[in-house]
Amino acid sequence: xxxxxxxxxxxxxxxxxxxxxxxxxxxxxxxxxxxxxxxxxxxxxxxxxxxxxxxxxxxxxxxxxxxxxxxxxxxxxxxxxxxxxxxxxxxxxxxxxxxxxxxxxxxxxxxxxxxxxxxxxxxxxxxxxxxxxxxxxxxxxxxxxxxxxxxxxxxxxxxxxxxxxxxxxxxxxxxxxxxxxxxxxxxxxxxxxxxxxxxxxxxxxxxxxxxxxxxxxxx
Length: 219
Fold this sequence. Notes:
The chain is α+β, with helices and mostly antiparallel strands. The chain is 47% helix and 16% strand. A hairpin with a 3-residue loop joins β3 and β4.
């Protein structure tokens, strides 16, 4: 097994994560399969780079059929976790005071999408930074946020080569991603300023320049 996550006893994601095991147990119990799921999103990038605070849990599953087993409308176990939820065709979001748990039907994109980490004594498939960024830009690059830019910039600076290896996924909406950021500079700067940073201090302009130059270099 790879990384063993050291719990800090106080971070929001830690109080949410046991629910991930409960929800996947529902898939196992009522779906009759051994669930395949990965842990990704901004909280994993936080664990990797300590660049900003992140509170939510993003779980990715390969098939929308999983969602019926984690939907509070259909699952008593999910309802016990939260009665405040959103359901869409491709995701279920559970809202709790500590943060949100998203279960998203989105198959892995990259050739090596995850590593095995030990979290709370259990093996968990934790997405690589390249997989996380690939999903962000491939699925919703056209609606990118200042936080997406911040996450992209930290990975470009810390570990650019794996991103180069997944260039087709990054380029799908690359122009729309940059154009959106440039079209609303005041709003994006405000969003950027609201990010609760930890160990990455580049400015909005620096991150935008980094992202644009890097994406252009992939063409």
